């Protein structure tokens, strides 16, 4: 509770500065309240208005929201459009083809500018090449690529021809990639020979080969390989194709495939509290609409702005705020291949300086680690760079502690840039609760108020509203256009995970705890209420890590919990019972390293436990249930104050508490 209490006690308020409000899309609380009122008085009319304003429709919609099959909602269903047309062609047609769409900076610092016309040409060529290989509307294509222009091109090329992409983060293992290829039923895979991160070449193609060899994905006919490093790769004739070769002779003209507003734009896997990751299915119009609208409202993007979102395209933030939102509104954005600490920990600040970035969007974890680095070395401190172009800062992915907020505000924002602390999720498609840079008085650590049209609330276990000041469960009371439409192939899971009967079956359950301030009604997020961990802004299911551990032949039983961590927000702690006697000393260290690497191979390095403790058993009730709350206390090194009378084996607590 200590972190939460420090957030709740936060009393500093930062009113919007005059220059942030002047000319802002939402220029003050009156303007915000007017939009909220518009949405409340005519919900469908509000969404229809912005859908007409923000998107170019091939065929206009006549219906707005259909709730007849709730909770399977549809929006603008009889309208037709193409996401790639909205992101590219319409800007070129408006005479903006020579504007920069992407300023790409490679790991080694090489910079490449890509105009809207270039991007459209590249997307069209790949779209034609995919069509030639037989990829068609409704097919699923998995993308396993590094941060690259090609990554964005691949996503846009898929949606241009009506194929649905599923991007798998380049840090996931072959097993994770295999599971996603199988679950989504991919017909093609787009990958790279290697990826460059922090001066090192890391394999991708060989991992993809292993994933395909693991079976179940025989539907994958083509493996398209972007040559990033020229490193040696194994080649399967008849299946593997070089990207540069297949696009070489393709035309740069490709008529977009017009699809229904509800056509699946993408499927992105994310961890839940049970079972394997869920394929979160997003619709074309709703998700594109909200990505574009929030670029205007949350980031106040205007012509001349240079936007930089540091997320990876493998996560939802990289979908909505790299591949779609910035392009949909015709913005110029920086796309970065590398890592914040290479060749030095001032890389972000140096790049903001070099590219004259005006709006910068990153994760609290990155901020916290860069605070440490700049305290240790003044040369990499933000103050050693010219950051005077910045006008808005953003954060996403996890709660930001007030200390990190203040540091970001003072040192990166020079005390002049509003910080938009955006709360949202893979499932929500875009921002949900966030300050508006020209309107909302900021309170460090609070994501403040819902965007207009988003009916967020805090309720108790029965779905009843709780009074402000009292913590509860964060829900959204009405469907909104960018919400997920389904869990791919598992409608039952969609219903039970997100619209549980306990809450009445109608409220969208976010999976987070929250509290609203007594006076302002501001929301503060208190973290997940389910068995999902948030490590460096990455979502990890404890069950997934437990399954990975028990699949190791040495392991009899494992339980995983989270522990607060200064840098990563949360850290993974695993309690493990081996089939052999409990190891001690060097043997324990060595087995812990082996198991850590095992999890890295099973899921990906992000899931490696920071701390592994061995016991002869786990704390269980007499009915055999693992008492996770005790494990959480042990992980934190807290004294056990809970009632342990139902525990079958209380002595185990001492063993697990000591065993570090
Ligand atoms: O717990 C919340 C946390 O991240 C979860 C969503 O993770 P994911 O689907 O991977 O999407 C991350 C990027 C949108 C949420 O359930 N979270 C996200 N943003 C915030 C946050 N927690 C606190 N404050 C935020 N701004």
- Percent of residues in beta strands? 15-25%
Which structural class do the helices and strands define? alpha/beta
CATH class of the domain at 536-657: Alpha Beta
First-to-last CA distance: 23 Å
- Which oligomeric state applies? single chain
- Report the principal-axis shape: globular
Roughly what is the average pLDDT, rounded to an integer? 96
CATH architectural designation of the domain at 536-657: 2-Layer Sandwich
**Fourth-level CATH superfamily of the domain at 536-657:** ANL, C-terminal domain
Unreliable stretches, pLDDT < 50, 5 or more residues? 1-7
Helix content: 25-40%
Number of strands: 30
Give me the Rg, rounded.
24 Å
Tell me what the structure shows.
With 660 residues, this protein is of the alpha/beta class. The protein has a domain at 536-657: 2-Layer Sandwich (GMP Synthetase, Chain A, domain 3), CATH 3.30.300. Helix content is 33%, strand content 22%. β14 and β15 form a beta hairpin. The longest helix is centred in the last third of the chain and has 18 residues, at 585-602. The chain is globular. The two termini are 23 Å apart. The relative contact order is 0.11. Bound molecules: adenosine-5'-monophosphate-propyl ester. Residues 270, 316-317, 396-399, 421-426, 447, 510-512, 525, 528, 534, 539 line the site of adenosine-5'-monophosphate-propyl ester. Adenosine-5'-monophosphate-propyl ester is lined by residues 270, 316-317, 396-399, 421-426, 447, 510-512, 525, 528, 534, 539. Its EC number is 6.2.1.1. InterPro entries: Ac_CoA_lig, ACAS_N, AMP-bd_C, AMP-bd_C_sf, AMP-binding_CS, AMP-dep_synth/lig_dom, ANL_N_sf. One of its GO terms (cellular component) is cytosol.
